[in-house]
Design a protein that fits this description.
single chain, 114 residues, mainly beta, 4-stranded mixed β-sheet, two-stranded antiparallel ribbon, 1 helix, 12 strands, 39% strand
Length: 114
């Protein structure tokens, strides 16, 4: 199975004490978005944007037999399960992600479907 990392950062997969690093492929899948109107909120030093509107997915390659594409949770959610060849890093509370002392994910122990 070929695994293509469509995020802008390396992802470390940890299995049986062995790490496999998925380097960024250079192709980044993203969900387009448009910010809501800016408003001033008393006591807040910067404007607050209204609810964003999400659009289509950009940068996700077409399916390739024998290939999994790894994307961000946002892209995975936007796909709503429509692409079985697309997965995301398992970083949820029950996914067993490995975190450092600051709580940052340093490795994932599973990939998840959307």
């Amino acid at each position: 199975m070929n695994i293509i990392n469509c995020t802008p950062h390396a992802i470390t997969l940890r299995a049986d004490g062995t790490d496999t690093v998925l380097a960024p492929s250079g192709t980044v899948a993203r969900v387009s978005s448009t910010p809501g109107a800016l408003e001033t909120v008393p006591g807040v030093p910067v404007p607050v944007a209204g609810v964003q509107t999400f659009g289509g997915i950009e940068g996700l390659p077409e399916p390739v037999p024998g290939t999994l594409f790894v994307v961000s949770a946002m892209v995975l959610a936007a796909l709503r399960g429509s692409r079985p060849d697309v997965v995301g890093p398992g970083t949820g509370p029950n996914d067993g992600a490995v975190r450092n002392e600051k709580g940052h994910v340093v490795a994932v122990t599973r990939l998840v479907r959307g």
